[in-house]
Amino acid sequence: MNKTVILKSRPLGMLSETNFEVVERPIPEPAAGELLVKNYFASLDPGVRKLLGEPEGYMVPTALGEVLRTNTVGRVLQSRHPDYADGDLVVGTGFLQEVSAFAPGPMTWKIDPKSRIALQSNLGILGAIGLTAYFGLLSVGQPKSGETVLVSGAAGAVGSAVGQIAKIKGCRVVGIAGGAEKTRRLIEEFRFDGAIDYKGKSAEQLTAAIREQCPQGVDVYFENVGGIQLDAALACMNWGGRIPVCGLISEYNRSVPPQPMLNLFNIVAKILRVDGFLSFTYKEEFPAALRELETWVLSGKLVYREHVENGIEAAAATFVTLFTGENRGKTIVKLAEPD
Amino acid sequence: MNKTVILKSRPLGMLSETNFEVVERPIPEPAAGELLVKNYFASLDPGVRKLLGEPEGYMVPTALGEVLRTNTVGRVLQSRHPDYADGDLVVGTGFLQEVSAFAPGPMTWKIDPKSRIALQSNLGILGAIGLTAYFGLLSVGQPKSGETVLVSGAAGAVGSAVGQIAKIKGCRVVGIAGGAEKTRRLIEEFRFDGAIDYKGKSAEQLTAAIREQCPQGVDVYFENVGGIQLDAALACMNWGGRIPVCGLISEYNRSVPPQPMLNLFNIVAKILRVDGFLSFTYKEEFPAALRELETWVLSGKLVYREHVENGIEAAAATFVTLFTGENRGKTIVKLAEPD
Fold first, then answer.
1. A63 to chain B, minimum CA–CA distance in Å?
2. What is the CATH number of the domain that holds A246?
């Protein structure tokens, strides 16, 4: 049998562990064009939250009783797709279960078994996390050497990678995170130039802190959070600034009421670009980007944290921590020992 | 002497006629590189409101006692610039006064004296208004034939031109305006496919009205207004939609408190572009754009309204009407009879 995490009930507001259940399902039969994969690692992403509510946005929501979709790393047990062979190591958008059948999509690719990078990192810095940071910052944000880049959610997996890539590109980098430990980590571990603790700060205090840390103004604001962090950043943008909008995590659970936005006018006054993006728009450039990310990782220029929980039974409780600020870098569940 | 409109006091909230004064100033001496111009027409633009408050955005604010800057049409009395001759008809960023000296900038050009279009229209459909509609819609909005384009401030000078250009490009066009007369005009005079009266509508009612008029969703939302109109439009955007942000007139006077924005998450979920723009970014393309606009005007595909007030003494009272919904198309003050 095949342990599988299903959606048991739709979250109302804040997600709860009780919205999920681990059940036994039969091993699926791969259809023509599909892969049957034994999953070693599964990624837990805040964006999946949006799949659990009503239909909206770019993905079809998960039905009640249905297995959760997620990115996984595993080995092909049986390939019914011409580009993949039995035994290949793959990253793919599969399911939160021990064995999955799925058709390779834009976020599926083979992993080089000789890579010196840990297998689960293909779900993080060498996977969706690294690619999101890379293309969001470089393609939408277009930072130039000497510019100032501000990052929200900066201690998170994407945010910490964005800041380091911006440093590699010669920018001054300031991060916003919650609490003394995370802001200390921005400076000491991820080598940001400045760090701002948003906790306990009003919009005005946050704006003042950004102005202090970004004396030349903000050229690129990489947005993971939204709410008053977005409004405060809008107040500090330079003329022609770019705001790649990766996520608005403060709005996923509606745990805070939507805030009046005081500084949207700067979109006109400063001629800003405020652009959502999807990394798979850049699918053709993935191989080159992954090579560059691997080079930076191996040279020590790009460091990252992963938080790996053991066992599919831990998945639901771990998922909830993504929204309570407890997580420490990219969060992954280990489903089986790689063989 | 030289009648001149100066800023007498900074507006607090809603603009008032008493913020301005007509005074006599000496005829200026043009410096090297400048033109001395007798002004026939001066443009009154809502965007000038932002010059009257504290420094922010892309322009230096007007000091107290200083003449108001504006776009003018006039004749060169004395050229000290190699590209212009005495007697040339010009559009330029001059001042709200009878005779001005200014250096030609990106929004200065010569007018063909043989054009069949009225001289003052070089401040409107063949000037900043037409260019703003043209480049905002086509360069940022990139509408494709068959797509749905929604326009706020649709009965205004820019909005009505945007809608008609979108029709020329084969789009379904829906406009939002205030009141029965303006919405009737959208359909009958500017040939929009649908019109929505925002007056008296809550954000939910506005969203429902947009959904009804745009059954295929909105691909391009051309934004002049902001506030709940922006929030309602965000709720209705299609995947990959574009929002050229031309103005946020509801926020200029802060007459309405900033609204909580409920639908910003769609920037991520629908991968939207929300981009400010400045038409002078496209300066190199102005001559071709002006030719195309003139062709559309002469063929009757692009109609427009102008409201011309007589005399510099009327300027202040007329300026205030831009913010009270009374205006009827592009608002211009006639300063002298063309000679």
1. 19
2. 3.40.50.720
